[in-house]
Amino acid sequence: MLPALFLFSLTLFAWQRDDLAAISQRAGVLMGAGKFADAIPLYQQLVKAVPGNPGLVLNLALAQHMSGRDREAIPNFETVLKSQPKSLPALVSLGAAHLSLREPKLAVDPLERAVTVDPGNQDARGMLAGALLDLGRFEEAGEHYRSLSELAPDDPRVWYGLGMSYQSLSTRAFEQLQKIDPTSPYVSALVADTRVQRRQYRSAFFFYNEALKKLPNLHSVHAALAEVYRKTGHLDWAAAEDAKERALPPADCKLHPAECQFIGGHDLQAATPAKSAVLALETLYWQAKAANELALQSFFRLGQLPPSVELHQLRAEIARNQNQHLEAAKEWRSALELMPGNPRARQELAISLFMAQDFQGAIAETEDLLRSGPKNPELLFVAGDSWLRLEDAGKAIPFLEAALALDPQLVAAHASLGLALVRAGRNKEAVAHLEKAVELDEDGSLHYQLARAYQATGDAARATTAMAKYQDILKRVQQQKDDVAREAQIGPPR
Amino acid sequence: MLRVRRRLGLRDNMRALSLTVAAAAFLTAADGPTPIRFHDVAGASGLNFMLENSPTSRKHMIETMPGGIAVFDYDGDGRPDIYFTNGAEIPALQKTAPKYWNRLFRNEGNWKFRDVTEQAGVAGAGYSMGAAAADYDNDGRTDLFVAGVNRNTLYRNLGNGRFEDVTEKAGIKSGEWAVAAGWFDYDRDGRLDLWVVHYAKWSTAYDRFCGDSSRGIRIYCHPKYFEGIASTLYRNRGDGTFEDVSKKAGIAAFAGRGMSVAFADYDGDGYPDAFVTNDNMPNFLFHNKGNGTFEEVSLPAGVALRDHGKAVASMGAEFKDYDNDGLPDLAVTALAGETYPLFRNTGGGNFTDATYSSKLGALTTRHSGWGLGLFDFNNDGWKDLFTANAHVNDRVEAFEPAVYRELNSVFVNDRGTFREASAGSGLTGAKAHRGAAFGDFDGDGRMDAVVSALGEPAELWQNVSADAGHWIVLKLRGTKSNRDGIGAQVRIGKQYAEMTTTVGYASSASIGIHFGLGAATVADSIEIRWPSGVKQKLSNVKADQILQVTEPD
Fold first, then answer.
1. A17 pLDDT band (50/70/90 cuts)?
2. Which of B364, B337, B245 is nearest to B294 (CA)?
3. For an interface test with B, which of A390, A450, A467, A481 has the most B Cβ atoms less than 10 Å from its Cβ?
4. Rounded to whole angstroms, how far apart are CA atoms B487 and B270?
5. What angle do CA B198, B200, B204 make, to 5 degrees?
6. Hey, how many other C-beta atoms are within 10 angstroms of the C-beta on A24?
7. Which strand (E) or helix (H) includes residue A248?
8. Of A376-380, A405-409, B204-208, where does mean pLDDT reach its minimum?
9. Using the 8-state DSSP alphabet, how is residue B504 labeled?
């Protein structure tokens, strides 16, 4: 995505002394050879010697940007743009510099200007779309990716970005819906859709029926229920649900425009309602469904292209959502074959290995990343917790302590360190960490650990209280499981 | 030139390193416990048993769980014989062909075994899982209980090489899925009572799909989908019949997905207690209150869960003193990623999770285990751990970084901590191992092992450890107490053991009590506390013998 170099001709400086011309020539050679850092002092000399020359300032800025010194490059790009507001290399490179510094908000303005100057510039538009996606401006990101899909239909980055834009739109609509009314039948229907994607058919069956209790005429739910029946081998019940779907009266398009758009296959309109539209539950529901549909179409196009980093990334994310972490790790490995050493992919691989309980593999990746890159609390946690799972508390403790030194709020690391300290016989120290971690306790295990640690330190009263809490949580969790099990039995159409 | 020198330097360094490693290995061998060696003699011995678990595409849970074994001397010739439980045709749950028969192999000496199933009348019926051998009627002949899917069988040993099915007559109920069982005298009335462990409610109609349909991978469902059942306790009335006292004894309220049972008097009050492993649920420890009732104390005692507070797939259990402090501890097998939990008895009714401190955690975290035995395989005075390994899920490799078929393992006890001793132990053959039972089949004082495996021939591991120490086996004969002396507490020096016939996963070994004595050729003192309360002391007992000890009046 980085712009091409724009090297200004030496003839610009013909009136100057010969040595300046020689410096300029040397700098140009270095830039051509990719030795950007070496070119910086030469351009600094030139800028000093010939003040106010935007070409030289741009070259200096480019050298700084290309050598990773983006913070220094930015004011120089801005200087160029003051005198040459439409300078494409300055606009594009300024946007790229901000992106490198993880400042997508500041990248948007120069990149939008670059796209206005040159609407066909794929680099500028691609960077702009990515920045907008990062900023949660999904509709705008989608528009740019859509334009790019016409400019570069074979570029996997475009289809991946477009799919992610739609998926994010869908997720946002769902979250808004849930915030407005978590008990809405629309929420139930969307939850059911996600359960189908995860192949959790009993759960999907339950939620579709919850939706139908309140909205028996909601289009597409009976059809979805029929699909659940087919997937679980109940073909006769599936036929009955299909018949119910067919028997539904057509939607009133004046009252339910979004529904009509979706059913009519106009996903784009349904997914991107006018800004003035009232955010009714129904509108959000159809927006979520339509955007999801568009995301699937984009990802389908991605899947038709030759293997790419983006395709593996997508597959890895799907596998992760389905709790198939070994599959996710396989995909990240394939992605790394296409971009060897990429730190983000390696981090994702490490996390997938950790989630897949391949703790040896996770340790190998994380320790290497931590040796060669910045200390990251999540990675330190992964390394520490992996050692703990491999029953080596001695090796776990330094990683977990380092993770907490960087991020004292990392509750999972407190939990892990607490257990490691218990195993190391340091119960008193463990208590402090376990007390900080109990807020995470979903299954009672942390209260159990805390009770045992209190017991080991002679605090019988607290041990009793913590153990009682453990038992309460256990009962509650079991009750929830029983309720779900009772409700989620697949039965005949209701 | 520089490169050549560097290469030479590297080679020198490597040589130095390899010498260091070799020296370290030598020192380890010299300083550490005596190595343990096994040799599989099943093929040549005539022990040609194949465990027919009848795997189906519907992945019925029962298919992955059979394999209990009993080692006992059925004909009283002094040599331990071997009984294998076997599966049945599914969904009929009938032994429709001889390949499904349970099998009894008579030990004919010199590592030769003969199939005597038909003569003995113990081919069984239904889908069998576990076995428990003991002399429940105190007639001097070891009887046999077989646990199975909706069908249990009690065989009375007639003493003429034949057994009689007395299930109905004895009042032993069937109808639930029993996995394991064990004999103990909970009320100390001199008659052995029976504890039957149940897994869950199940029938062949159960057809939940578990796995990944998109990849066409169906797997055995997670235990959470099965509703557990409580164990049953049968009190021996002494007239050949039994009474179901589960409710009266206070155990019927504790539904679990039971896998095994092990007994020991963990709190030293003279009454045997019961530990039941549960699959993905907290384990149970039933404290015998001495008045015919039990209280479940696993949580306060610290054996319900490992130190992380999460339930694991607890499989088999051994309730024995591994650290020679005179208190029975608990060793459990579980699945890969869970370790084989070890709970050390710290006295006063409390246990601590010693999985980490004993080093067993790090050694076992990648293994999955079923059968296990805490026995002193090298006779150095410390009980070692043998585990029959394999995962429960035959498609596990598609979902987890674990393997289905595994080699068995042996972990040598180095004065209270464990070391991996499998490499070089001779334990070969990755299989779907399940049950394991133990006995000294050739009378040489070294404990041998027999292991079953799903769909594959059973293994018979002759202990050939070259430098094993001296030993003694006590065969107890109760007079006031039950005839097998089950529950008797024996101390030799710092070593402590209780007479039991339950072992590991769904298995049984009625072989007396084995002690390794190391370099000692004489046991200075042997103290026995019989279940009746009678105390007995033997002095200056010669090593390397099987000693018959009768309970004094």
1. low
2. B245
3. A390
4. 9
5. 115
6. 25
7. none
8. B204-208
9. B
Residue A280 has pLDDT above 90, yes or no: no
Tokens of B364: 């076992």
Nearest by CB to residue B299, choosing from A391, A446, A467, is: A467
Mean pLDDT, range A60-72, rounded to an integer = 95
pLDDT-flagged residues of chain B (< 70): 1-31
CB A302 within 8 A of CB A313: no
HSE (side-chain half, CA atoms, 13 Å) at B217: 11
CA distance B188 to B290: 9
Starting at the earlier edge strand, list the strands of the sheet with B113-115: B113-115, B103-107, B81-84, B69-72, B507-509, B502-503
Give me the amino acid identity at B205.
Answer: A
pTM: 0.85
What is the chain B residue with the closest CA to A489?
B208
Rounded CA-CA distance B138/B401 in Å is 50
B447 vs A249, residue with greater confidence: B447
Q: Residue B251: its pLDDT value, please?
A: 98
Q: Is B211 on the interface with A (CB under 8 A)?
A: no
Q: For position A265, what pLDDT does the model report?
A: 72
Closest A-chain CA to B351:
A452
Q: Which two tokens stand for residue B13?
A: 């360094």
Q: Min CA distance, B399 vs chain A (Å)?
A: 6
Chain A contact for B527, CB < 8 A?
Answer: no
- Which tokens sit at A48? 């000093």
Where is average pLDDT lowest: A173-182, A397-406, B407-416?
A: A173-182
User: Which chain B residue shows the shortest CA-CA distance from A427?
Assistant: B307
> How confident is the model at residue A88, as a pLDDT?
96
Rounded CA gap, B496 and B328, in Å?
A: 8
**Kind plus residue range of the DSSP H or E element containing B135:** none
**Candidates B209, B302, B309; nearest CB to A446:** B309
- Is-contact B338 B313, C-beta < 8 A? yes
Centre a 10 Å sphere on the Cβ of residue A300 and count the other Cβ atoms it contains: 11
